[in-house]
Amino acid sequence: MPAGLSVHVGLNSVDPAAYGGWDGRLLACENDARDMAAVARAAGFEPTVLLTPEGTVDRVTAELRKAAGRLDDGDILLFTYSGHGGQVPDEEGDEPDALDETLVLFDRQFLDDELHREFRRFSPGVRIFCLLDCCHSGTATEAASQSGGEGGAAVRVMPAVRQQQLFERDREFYQELQRELRKNGVDGEPGTLLISACQDDQFALDGRVNGAFTEALLRVWDAGAFSGAYRDFHRAIRERLPRTQVPNLHTTGSPSPEFLGQKPFTV
């Protein structure tokens, strides 16, 4: 019988010492992580939840590598992230928009290529389902000025000026990391399906209880009453959100037709 493991990361703030005094305060990201873990548990996954100070690069990569060591062909990983998204210049040249999308983890930004590298550690036959409720997340499993959201809601993005300041401070670190990541091969890559909160050039709204994307997802899921496949799930979530925040469906590797045709969260 297939096994399912899940990792849920929710950051309501980041370490100001790592981000030049900015704490990135948000309201609903920890709730998102807890609620997605509840969905996963009910579907038969074994969940791990990392909240705010636990959401460091080392802890996230450690949990993903632990899961990679346990899951085999036919099994499934669910990874969810709620927090800020960011972008850093891609000075190694493999991104069409010349930007690497990032997850703004507690201690530093985690490049999309880093997340992709961790997913490549899994056996090629493992199904990987990724949900990202953050800004700039449209292709954030791949190798602008901040403004308020609708009704004044906060957006899950690091301010552009802060992003630029931090990149200038850490330029050598990110350049070396980008060069290192480009050296990794992609042989035997597992099929990964991402549904993200928005496109790479858009912002994702925070909320009082859940982020706008996670709230829409939970309503569509309806405690498991939803009966469509992944593309139907994405379409139904998209219909609940404004045109300023359009969820993306993106695949890497070669997810099998059987995987794509399953009901979401099927172990």
From TrEMBL:
Q: Where is the Peptidase C14 caspase domain?
A: 18-251
One Gene Ontology cellular component term attached to this UniProt record is: cytoplasm
The record's GO molecular-function terms, alphabetically, read:
cysteine-type endopeptidase activity
Spans annotated as Disordered:
246-267
Q: Compositional bias (Polar residues) at which positions?
A: 246-255
Question: Some GO term, biological process aspect, for this entry: which one?
Answer: proteolysis
**At the top level of its lineage, which domain of life is listed?**
Bacteria
- Entries under Gene3D superfamilies matching the protein: 3.40.50.1460
Q: What protein does this entry describe?
A: Caspase family protein
